[in-house]
Amino acid sequence: MISVNNVGWIEKEKPTAGPLDAILKPIAVAPCSSDTHVSHGGAGPFENRILGHESVGEVVEVGSAVKNFKPGDKVIVNCVTPDWESPVVQDGFDNNAHDAVSMSGFKFVTQKDGVFAEFYHVNNADGNLFPLPEDISLEDALMTTDMMSTGFHAVENAEIKYGDTVVVFGIGPVGLMAVAGSAIAGAGKIYAIGTRPNCAALAREYGATDIISYKEGNIVDQILDLNKGQVDKVIIAGGNGESFNQALQLTRANGIISNVNFLDVTDVINFPAPLWGLGMSNVTFKSGFCPGGARRIERLVRLIQAGRVKPGKLLNYKFEGFDKIEEAFKMMDEKPRDLIKPYVLI
After folding, report:
1. Range(s) for CATH 3.40.50.720 in the chain?
2. Residue 63: count of CB within 10 angstroms of its CB
3. What is the CATH number that goes with domain 22-146+290-345?
4. Which of 47-51, 198-202, 293-297 has the lowest mean pLDDT?
5. How far is CA 17 from the centre of its chain?
6. Cα dihedral: 106, 110, 115, 118 (round 10)
7. Angle at 117 between CA 328 and CA 28, to 5 degrees
8. Residues 6+ apart with CB under 8 A from 29
């Protein structure tokens, strides 16, 4: 990223590792909507910043204090890489780690250069890298770094219990993982909102019971009619500020609305007080970035190894070669109608 709305190749010095850190070269990377969002100024007016935060890599150098990894090791890199000695982490907030600033544990791009590079830096290597298992595909591994972790975090924040009725706004990659996570958590009815045919088909495969399209009428009315009333939990994985208004209309008293959608700086959240029971409905709003670290990746990998979910199915455009990162990034930015998620093997 050369400047806002100006993306291209830049030359930088190879990063160096501190005592706790590692330098990696990418094996596989995937552009994300968050990367394109940043490229358009969504996270600050960055200049000469390397983008990218979804990667499986090979260790090429480790710091003197790194215990668990050595050059040549293949690893999964969580997109959230906290400094684990931070007081905020010790308070239990690793996704916003290091200080009280939102997403400060999301160091790639927001704090430093990302993974779309010949070599990239990972802080606290022992805490943030997880060995790539031999019994899962590279595609499944790559999707644990963000898409699966974020979609499942939405489920965790929604506190979904078996038999719950759930609505998922948006069935892009994160929303699809929220559908899969809701099904694994035991949800009964899962209403997935989206119109892309291949996303709708995959949503059903992951566990959606109903696909809701705005082309067929007001989505709130459709769901209230199908469900015979309001639902227990709503996950917002796509949409805009208006989605919160719709979510409140759909959520029963004592329910939970869980947002993992990266809103635009121009979005405004505004809803009539009666939708929130004049503030007395006990409907809870939760939002947040996915947790960081190796332990998080390990738990997601276990689900893949057990055959409970195949997140690699999100990847429906494959590129090969380091120089194809730019093409894959542009595809993610332009989002052709048949796209779910592109990736690049390097």
Report:
1. 151-287
2. 18
3. 3.90.180.10
4. 47-51
5. 27
6. -140
7. 55
8. 52, 54, 55, 56, 115, 116, 142, 325, 343, 344, 346
The three-point CA angle 91-129-332 to 5° equals: 100
Give the DSSP letter string of 3-24.
Answer: BTTB------PPP---TT-EEE
Q: What is the distance between the alpha carbons of residues 345 and 203, in angstroms, rounded to a whole number? A: 25
User: Which tokens is 137 given?
Assistant: 């595909």
Domain 151-287, CATH:
3.40.50.720
- Other beta carbons within 10 angstroms of residue 73's beta carbon come to 18
CATH 3.90.180.10 in the chain: give the residue spans.
22-146+290-345
Q: Binning pLDDT at 50, 70 and 90, where does residue 265 land?
A: confident
Residue burial 251-276, b: 16+ Cβ < 10 Å; e: rest: bbeebbbbbbbbbeeeeeeeeeeebe
Structure tokens at 34: 């968050």
Determine the Cα–Cα distance for residues 28 and 142; give it in Å rounded to an integer: 7
pTM of the model: 0.94
Q: 190 falls in which pLDDT band (50, 70, 90)? A: very high
Q: Quick one: pLDDT at residue 267? A: 84
For residue 327, give the nearest of 3, 7, 6, 5 by alpha carbon.
Answer: 7
The answer to whether 146 and 290 are in contact (CB under 8 A) is: yes
Sheet holding 231-236, edge to edge: 210-212, 190-193, 166-169, 231-236, 251-259, 284-287
